[in-house]
Each structure stands twice: as C-alpha cells, then as structure tokens.
Amino acid sequence: MKTSIATVSLSGDLRQKLEAIAKAGFDGVEIFENDFLVFDESPRQVGNIVRDHGLEITLFQPFRDFEGMPEPLRSRTFDRAERKFDVMQEMGTDLVLVCSNVSSAALGGIDRAAADFQELGERAAKRGLRVGYEALAWGRHINDHRDAWEIVRRADHPNIGLILDSFHTLSRKIDVNSIRSIPKEKIFIIQLADAPLFDMDLLYWSRHFRNMPGEGDLPVLEFMKAVAETGYDGYLSLEIFNDQFRGGLPRAIANDGHRSLFYLGDQVKRALPDVAMDVPEMPARSAVEGVSFVEFTIDEAEAPQLEALFRTLGFRKAAKHKSKNVVVFRQGAINLVVNMDEGGFANASYLVHGASAYAMGLMVNDAEAALARAVALGAERFEQPLDPGEIEMPAVRGVGGGLVYFLDRRSALGKIWDIEFDPIEDGIPSDAGLTAIDHLAQTMRYDELLTWLLFYTSIFAAHKTPLVDIIDPSGIVRSQVVENAEGTLRITMNGAENRNTLAGHFIAETFGSGIQHIAFKTDDIFATAEKLAQSGFVPLAISPNYYDDLEARFGLEPDLCERLQRFNILYDRDDSGEYFQLYSPTYGEGLFFEIVERRGYKGYGAANAIFRIAALRKHLRPTGMPALANALA
What we know:
Blueprint: E1 2-6, H1 14-24, E2 28-32, H2 33-37, H3 43-52, E3 56-63, H4 73-91, E4 95-99, H5 110-127, E5 130-134, H6 145-155, E6 160-165, H7 166-170, E7 187-192, H8 202-209, H9 220-228, E8 235-238, H10 243-246, H11 250-271, E9 288-297, H12 303-312, E10 316-321, E11 326-331, E12 334-339, H13 344-353, E13 356-364, H14 367-376, E14 395-397, E15 403-407, H15 416-419, E16 421-423, E17 434-445, H16 449-459, E18 463-464, E19 468-472, E20 475-483, E21 490-496, H17 502-509, E22 514-522, H18 525-535, H19 544-554, H20 558-567, E23 570-574, E24 577-583, E25 592-599, H21 609-617, H22 624-632
C-alpha cells in the first residue's frame, strides 16, 4: 500500500512538513501550491528536497476554475495550465489536480467540460503529464463524482483521469456503489479524509473540520471498500483541512495520518479478503477482558498517605514484589500497584510528574499479538532491563508518555501476581464491596484527543462515543469515550483547552497528560458507602441544592433523595437504567477516585460533571500533601 499526505494537512514551513512526513513513514507527498509559493526555493530545489527525504511527489494541487469558461477566460485558463505544467516538470511530478469550477462565470454542460479536458489532455500528453479531475462538493455545476466521471469518460483521453476524495463524496451522501464501475486505470489518485457530523455549509465544514480516517463519523471504510473493489492499487493520500492540525506538532499529526491509513487498509483487507490489498500483516484488534491493574509511582516518604487513602476505600495490602520496592493493594478484581522503587521508568516518571497513576495493565486475549498490532500501527514499544525471575510484560507508550501493559491468561503473564510477588497477610479488615474497575479517565490537551482516540480504537476491539461538552465553572472540557461492547474496557478522555479548568490544572501541575481518575464498580452503592464511612473515608461533599433539584428533576422518592444526600451520592438516569456516583476529594494536583453502581445505565454521568467539578475544585492546594491530609482528617 502506497501512502501519501498533502502538505496542507500539517503545520510549519514546507521543509518542516516534509521532514515530518518522511519520518512518519509515508511514501509520497502532495505539494499544496500555497506551501510552495511561500517557500524560498525553486521548484527544482523543492523536488530535490522531497527526493532527498525518500519521498515522491504524488500530486501538485490545486488548479482551480478551469472547465466551462467562456472566452476570453477560457484561453486564459489554458495559459495558466501551461504555467502550472512548467512548475510541475521542474519540480518532478507528473500529476496535477483540477477541481471542479466554482466561478460564477462558469458555463454548465457535460460535453463542454469534456471538450475542455480533451484539449487539456493533449497539452499534458506533450509534456508527459497527467490531469486528475475532482468534483468539489460545492462545485458550481459539478459537485458529484458521478458527473465528474462522465466528463472524464467523454473526454476519452489517456492523460485525463478521475481523482476521488472521500469527503466530497460522503459529505453529500452520494452512493459509494457508483465507484465500483469506474475502471481502475482511470482513477489517478484517492484522497481520504474523515470528519465529524455537522450540519453546516459544506465549504466551511471541509476547510476547518476534516480529520484522519477513523477519527470522524463519515463512512470512510465503505468508501474505501468500493475503491478497493475496482482493483485500484495506487496511492492513498490524506488531504486534511483542520484548524487544530494547523496549530499542532507536524510530527504528531503525520504519525496519526500514517496510522489511520494502515488501520483503514487493515479494515478493508479483513472485510474483503478476496480483494488484493497490499497492507502489512498484523493481528486483529485485541479483545480486552478488563483492566488488570493501575500502577502508581510515588516516593517512599509519601507512600504512607496514599496507602491510608487506599485503606479507607477498603483495599488491603496483598502482595510485595520479590526484588523491587513495589506493593499491591487489592479488592475484588482490582489491583492497585504502588511503585516506590528508586530505579527504572517508574522513578523517572515520578521525578517529572510527581505521584501519579502512570501505567495501566490490560488483560487481552493475546498479549504478544496486541503488542505486534500496536507496533505495526506506529506505537512506541517500551522495554527496560528485568531482574532475575521477572517476566517481560509487553508494553507501549501511552497518553502523556505513560505505559500501557498487555497481559493474557494463555501465558505466564496470567500468573504474574504469583510469580513475581509474595503474598502479604496484613491482618487489617477491609473490603467495601468494590469489585472491578469500571472506567479510567485520562486528561490531556484537547489537541491530543483525536490522537489517542485513534490509538485505542485501532489497537483494541472498541468504538468511540460522541463528543460531549463537560461544563467546568472555568471553561469547557471536551470529553469522548472509548469502550467495547462488553463494557470491560471503558476509557474516558477529557480534552482541556485552558489551564483554568480542573482538567487544565491537572495537566499544568503534573507536567503532562495522564490518568486523572479511576472509577471502581460496586453492586450496592449504599452498602459500600456505609462500609466506607466505617473505615474513615471522607467523601466529596456535594451541595445540598443539588439534591433539592434532583428530587424535582427525576421525581425521586424523598427517602431515596435523603439517602443519596446523606452519603454524597450523585444520581443520573438514561433510557437504559440508573447510575450512582460517589467521589473522593482530590489527591495531589487533581487525581481522585470514583465509585459507581450501574443499573443498566450506559453513560458516565456527564450531567453531574459540573457539580462534581465544583466540589473537587475546593480541595485543590498548591501541593498534594495538604489536600490529602484534609481528605483523611
């Protein structure tokens, strides 16, 4: 599979863009004319720079307002085309994109347009060049690839072909089955872009909100399956207009683009096994059985206070590592690993971020296969030296440079607690009825959100939910969830746009993105709340006004509202059932814990976020220890 990306998709000058594109692993690049025009080097030098990076110029674009023009404008368009041909030949590319005319002067008519392209094809052929015609979704007369194909067909010239762009087809809801009848040799290049579903002007939507395949809501896979069934085997190229990407790091955006194309290619290959699709072999997306553990890094001097908080939540110290200063706190199927070792990555993470939940372990169907797929899709593998008797646990770098470990039950990884740890019987009664990890919440900059959505959905058998706005008293936080159908993987990702929000404060004070809260599951929230109270747990205090409104809003019985208020439990309801939430105050600069009971409920209590955030903000302190001392008082 040959991959390409348009320079307009990235931030930076042309040299920076080309470097990022090459390092991400692309084979080719579309040169967007404006990127060339503002660059100081000649077309020949630009071509040399591209080739020095091991890339091919797949396309020079765009050439606008060509077909159907009346004289004298028609003659002028051919003069412009000849000038573009000069640049292309000097640059070293043979394909130019001509997009459908949007000029108010343009005349309609399929035959008129075909005649123009037949003449342009003759001129291109004399120079050994090709012309690709693309139907813009907002074209004046041609805004449908079926009409564009009819013009190309009638032009009947070997140097005139079609360029198909998924956004222009899918944004107008054009039937992709029409693509299957187009001869593959007449498709000169495929451009791909996804987008969130918005009801807005097509041009504005296209120019500001495109994103990588798999990051949006358009049926790009169905489009690509139709293309694949033509036998097309040329470049798949990304053309992404996105305000957020224009301000992002070019290397990160390029990496996302490369991952998106290989993920899309893998999906097509699995959906159409009889269709040739030159995509590197990789295992299928991994099924996730659950979160096996969350690992904290902390200094030994601070650890007793974190341990005290765990004990008030009903956790007991269950095991100690045979060779490292690492202990495990357990309750139900929940393992909280506290790493106080002074060597290795955990300690390095502590020195940068302070006490934090820096790693998670996912129980998957095949750990090595999960690692292989992740690496094939561009994830960075993590390895560090092992002590004698330790098992190598496959891992990759995740959000904020933290770690995602893979475990399975088919290998020794399923017995890691017995192999690497000695059991501890501390004799302290515990258990508050917490059974498993319901979900993890990771906080990140808003411009990272799409990156990590694509990371999780391309590696694991999971899907994303619609974007939700979380109202913080100091701003908006964008939240999106990756979850699987079984509910055994739930990761909420919260994108902060400013540091005044609770999420933004967490990122600023911990020097990076990461796990901000962990939600534990219980089968009886009220019984758990009783046990927590007995163990000395102090819940996050919720305003009494919340409960007055709750009774009226949901029509709850007064006795239920009184119980909710007594334990500071929040409540929500959807079409599937009820949801109960109980929170801890913050630890450090924003880390906190949640306890939930689901009675068929599918969501995450977004309606309660404003009340929870307002209450949590009262516990923020300049340093973590005073806040924790107050929480345990």
